[in-house]
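Researcher: Hi, I'm a grad student and pretty new to this. My advisor asked me to get structures for two proteins we've been looking at. I'm not sure of the right format, so I'll just paste the first sequence and hope you can take it from there.
Model: That works fine. Here's the first sequence with its structure tokens right after it:
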Amino acid sequence: MFTNWGLAVATLTLSVAGAGLAPLAAAAPSDGVQSQIALKVERDGKLTVSERVTVPAGKSANRTAPLRLTAGPDTERVYTVTQAKVTGNGNASVDDQNLTVHLGAGESTVSYVVDGAVADQGTHEDVRWQVASGWDVTIDRLTVSVVTPAEPQSITCLAGEPDSTTACGLSQIGEGGVPTAEHDTLTPGQRVDFAIGLPNGTVPVNERVVQTNALASAFALTTETGIGLVVLIVLLLAGLGLLWYARGRDAKALAGDVGPVQVLGKDADGHVAFASPDGVLPGQVGTVIDEHVDVVDVTATVIDLAVRNYLWIDEVPSGEGVIDWRIVRRNPADDALTAYEKAVYQSLLGDADQVQLSQLRGKGVNLAAVSSALYSDVVAKDWFTRRPDTERSRWWWGGVTVAALGIVLTVILALTIGHALLGLAVIIAGAALAAGSRSMPARTRRGSALLHQVRGLLTYLTTVSPTDIPDGDREMVFSRSLPYAVVLGQTDRWLTTFRGLDPDADGTPGLYWFGEAEQSRDLDRFASRFPAFLSSLDGVLAQGGHLRSLKP
């Protein structure tokens, strides 16, 4: 079967003629376009074409002759046309893609030479050329004849739409071994494909077939790529299952009802005191909750160090009001502090006895050691199996590496054996791994249990009332709970709830860790000034750029 090659574009008007070829018998008179085509297979394998076309008065005719025709799913058959000319009323031009011919009214002859028409079919040589295609007018009658060096073995002529297999009106090998074909009424957009079979070795084979759309075929869905994609999906689902299992304890802790968490109890002296669940410190609370060391975790730690008598916080007034804050060393950092608390202590004060926030803002605070120590601390407390920052980083870099390898694999596959979809799948897997790295740190069972207890602590901070605590114990409970209110975002509620308490009720004048005596006695004033201190401290700590700031 003669296949359709039609792809490109060029305008060509055909007529028959001669240059050594005997013309066909004149066609019956007609008012439409008449085309007679004479072909000659030269001994060097080239195809000489002489076309005579008659265009009625007052009309013109144009045809596109494609020089690159579809030969298969990913291949094109390439023809080369030379010596194109028009005798009569018209002109012709050729480029790598098309032969273009424009004809006016009357009779004109178009001649050219085609290279690339002869193909080896094993049992015979096949000479093929699309003798008509892309007309912008209807051809009433088209005839074809061919002269060959040897007696032809077969003839094929197809007419109609580019993909049709409809035979021409007539095709035969006549007396003397001359193949001829005829077809009536070829409308614009239709084509005529013509081929003859010659004995092997008659002329040199000159067919040229090139790969086309190789990139698209490289990314085609094949059996191999389909299997690879299924395997990838299974692996991704397995990874999601493992992640769900690892995070399932946390989900259950967050979704379940919060049972009673004992926060208030009595100390050895019989006073009501605050005790955090599992001994968790304020900075540890924030890290366990969101798996990150954030600025607020360090801010809450500074408040906690003051409440525990390691630091003292004071306002630095000026003529226009409070414009600065001072942090004073009260007791040295001893072994009762964790490594990350000592790092906070050292980062703020260094070797100085006191420092003002304006001074820290000028030189910056390096919190890299604090972050590293706090991540190590939550692992040492058995709340995480591995450091959350290291776990995130490892999976992120792993995902980036997989994606980079996927890019390299995609390029190699696209340029070699195909199946490049497998490379794209690896890229997607790497990107998913990198994007999911933030969810990779998994708490231990103890960490998940603490997460549940922290919810109970939050409930305590949002429901407790000063009347639940004896007058003499309120100031201490207020102070010891305040760092946890800071890290859990309950500062405003906590200050509002306790701003009316009497700080002298415990027998000591004012807050022991904040401000001068007169200032610390006024809890209402403290409640209005303390948020400004937190905001200033957050800004100083965030300036170093080592930690996330959760403020918008």
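Researcher: Oh nice, that was easy. Here's the second one.
Model: And its structure:
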Amino acid sequence: MQIRLRPLLMLICAGLCSAGAVRAQTETPASTELPASAAESEDNTTKTSSGRLQLQAAKSPWADLLKEHILEFASNAEAQNITPALIRRLRLDISNIMATEGYFSPQIQFDNPDQLAATGNKLIHVTVEAGPRTVIENVSLKVQGPMADAINAGDKALIKRRRSMQEDWGLAVGQPFREADWSDSKTQMLEGLRADTYAAASMIASEAKIDADQHSGILQVEVDSGPVFTLGELRVTGLQRYPSWLIDRYQPPKKGEVYSRSRLLDFQRSLQNSAYFATVGVGIDPDPAKADAVPVDVTVVERQARDLSFGLGYSTNTGYRSEIAYRDRNILDQAWDLRSALRLEQRRQLGYADIYLPPRESNFLDSFGVLVERENIAGVRSSRNALGVKRTSTRGHLEQRLGLNMVREKIASEGEAEEVNKALVASIGWTWRDVDQPFDPRKGEILQFDLAASEKALLSDQRFIRSYAKYQRWIPVRKTDSVILRAELGAVFSKDEEGIPEDYLFRTGGSTTVRGYGYQTLGIQHIGSTRGGRVMATASAEYVHWLDQTWGAATFVDVGNAADNWRALSLKQGMGVGARYKTPAGPIALDLAYGRQTKKVRLDFSIAIAF
């Protein structure tokens, strides 16, 4: 006996929770017609008995499905009047639900309610034996329309795509039939066509021929690709504050490009990640009549051009902090993005102003800015003024940076004469990011490498080359935990450290490097101060266990130090435990660390509040 399942046929589970459940429009195989129990042979208008139904079935997905969609099997279900009509309905509901999982010949048995009532037993067992599961015997996928014409004409790319459709079909030969898999497979195939080239692809027919006696199924699907869609003009709405040419700087699709959903999503993501728009929508109308040059609709909601914000914070590295920040995204009405701030900390004070230009069509982001900084850290008092320009480009996971900075630094420490160092530094750097979440990664890795160089003959006091590399990896453990590994290496190649600005030498220690030691207190030790060295190495291993969605606990081991050369480098060790608290900007860490060499315990903590 065959059962034919057509589109929209198996809308079973959605309505089974009510007495008027939607029934499957399919012939019920004879194998599901069981002999009536004693209760079913009675006239349901004359005899009823009361009891609670309990499903007797081994633990399996279909058993959970029955309990989910049939209220009488719920753990908190009330006692029912067990009538022949109720039993017939339950038989049909069970059979229909089992059919969605590929079981078309279930055996269903009810306890005799009258006999149980005579003994005072109010629990009626319903035994379900699934029987053999239907397995897919054959799959037929047919494509009609312009795609089929191109395939018949020998288009190699489309022949390959047609082969991929067959290989990617979800409910393949040999797999058990499931209504959910059947529906998902059709949706996936259709969306695959609509996502690239054929935006108006449609389903012509689909049918599942089920042979309940042989426990086999034959699937037949036929789709119409519809016409090839090529992109037309951009239609932008919502642009008021910023110039219209700004959209063209984010690599929009060009007229005549073949439609690709991923191409539009990349363009939407570029606009969304820019400084100018709060929300962005990009799409087309998949009308076959517009396929030759379908307009691309771009809808934007602009950010405010100007922002003024204030913040308070605290860090064990630099102490209490207050900050005022001003941002103007449309300087000179040219969409120049000004980012500026004045930050006052106990051990550091700084002010900066950077201007970011709109990206070029080649995807370069240029910026320039000024910085004034004063600090007193690890016994070293310094003031620094800097001018800089930078170009950043991003391709996939890789970010590249080019920079040129002019730095003038005045530095003094206890018992030493004041120094003035200046350097014109050219730099290049790369960062490769592949993480699941940008602010709170649980899986992935980041690799960073930077080079900087200064020439004594070009406005600098010392010739040097500075190299720095960092690798960090997040490894998921079980459902929520993670292991975090980090390693850093740095080296400055020069005649000596004299004349090199402190910012281009290395110091370490503190909450983000080697915990258990003061901020930047690991380096070359002088009387009452720590100066930067020409080499540096750090490493860290941390295990984070999340107790719930908000709070977690961590244990860690850190090692590291900085020195004038590799022979003098002696790694210091820190270890400890900590608490983690999740925020939208990433987890806040509170760590209690023990410095093995200092034999002291140190609390490392940072928190900031913007308002």
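Researcher: Is there anything I should tell my advisor about the second?
Model: You could mention this: Residues 84-100 form the longest helix (17 residues).
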